[in-house]
C-alpha cells in the first residue's frame, strides 16, 4: 500500500473519530450560545472573563441578575461555563428535576473534586446522607444535653473572659474550634472530641479539602490520583483523623463480635454507631475503618463551615441593641423548657436574626448547584446542554428589593414578624423551603439534610453567648467586610471581637 493511500486511510479513520466529537461540541455550543453571557463569550476572550470571576463573581452574578430577571444567563468560569438562573419558575424546575437530568451529587463531585478529597465510596454509596437525615436528626432531642454540656466546656476553654475586663478574641479561629468540639461531641463523643490534635485535624482537613479541590480542578482525570497524593494535604489529613478514630471503631467492631449482635449493651448513640449500623452489608463492611473515617470527615466538613456563626456574632458585636430582646426571648424559653431542643424551637426572634444575618451575607453567591447530565429544557424554553453547571443566584436573590424591603439593611426580626401572619408560622423558619432564601437550598430532596442539627446547634451557641457574655467591636466598629473568593464567602480571619463575662446567667 502506497504512502498516499496510508495517509488517506489514516485521515478517514481520524475523521470518523473526531467528527462525532466535533458535531457534539458544536451542538453543545449552539445551545450555550443561545443563553446570554455576562462577560466575554469568545473562545479566547472568555478565559479573561473566567479569571475575573475569581475576584468579581458577585458583581458578575448581580449584573446578569439585573439584566435577565427570571431568566438564565451564563458566565465563563475556570474550566467551563456556569449557567445561573433566578425566578420562582426556574427554581421550581431545578427543585423538581430528576437526578438523571440535574445532579446535585455530580455538581459536588465537580466543584469539590469529592472522589479525591472525600473518597469515591462516599459518592458511589452515599449511605451517610440517610444517617444524617434519619438517626442523626432524630436524636437531637435525646442528645441535646451532651451538645449543651460541650458548648459550656468549649467556651470556658476558648473564651475565659472575666466580668472585670474585656477580652480580645480572634473570632473566626476561635469559633472554628468551638464548633468542631461541639459537633464532634455529637459525632464521636468524649474523650476524642476534646483531643486538641483531633480538633485541629478536623479543622485542617476541611481547609485542605477545599484547597485540594482548587488544585485538582486544574488537572486532567488521569493525573488526579497523583496530584492528590503529592500536591495536596488530603491524604495526610485522613491519616491524622484515622489515628484518633480507628481505635474507637475497632473497639465497636470488637463489641459486635463479642456479643454477636450490632445492638450490644451500653452501645453509644453517636455518628460512629449510626454509620456502622448503616454499613450492614458485606460490601459496605470492606475497608470499614477507612470508610467510616472518610464519612465522618465529610460530615465534619459541612458542620465546620463556620461562616454562619461568625457572621451572627459580628452582627451582635456591631448592633448591641439587638442583644436584649434576643436575650429575653432566650431566657423565657429556657425557663419554660430547659436547655432542650424544644426550647430552641420556640425561639422565633433568634431564628429570624440568624436567618437575616445569612440573608445579608451567606456563605456562597450561588445555591442549588446542579450538573446537567443530559440536555435539559427549563419550563420557559431555555435549553442547557449536558456537562454544564447550573445554579441559583442566591446572593442577588437575597438582596432583591422586590422580595425584601430595604434588602441591604439588617432587619433582625424581619422573618419573625412575617411568622405572626396567619398561616405563615412555619414558612419563614430558617429550615423551611423558600424560593427567596437559599442558605440550605430552595427545596426538594436535596435540601441540606443536616440543617436541623446545624440550626439547633447555632441557636444554642448564640444563646450561650447572649446569656454569658457582653460582646462588642473595639472602638465600636461596624461589621467587617466579607472576603470573597469566587462564589465562596469567608469572614475576615484577622477580626477581633471583645468579650466580657456577664454577671447573670440562666
Automatic annotation (TrEMBL):
Flavoprotein in keyword set: no
Swiss-Prot/TrEMBL keywords: Heme, Iron, Metal-binding, Monooxygenase, Oxidoreductase
Any keyword tRNA-binding? Answer: no
What Pfam families does its record include? p450
Q: Entry's Gene3D superfamilies?
A: Cytochrome P450
Provide any one GO MF term from the record: iron ion binding
Q: Which cofactor does it need?
A: heme
Which residues are involved in binding heme?
448
Q: Which family does it belong to?
A: Belongs to the cytochrome P450 family.
> By its UniProt entry, which PANTHER family does this protein fall under?
CYTOCHROME P450 (PTHR46206), CYTOCHROME P450 MONOOXYGENASE AN1598-RELATED (PTHR46206:SF6)
Q: What is this protein called?
A: Cytochrome P450
**Organism of derivation:** Collybiopsis confluens
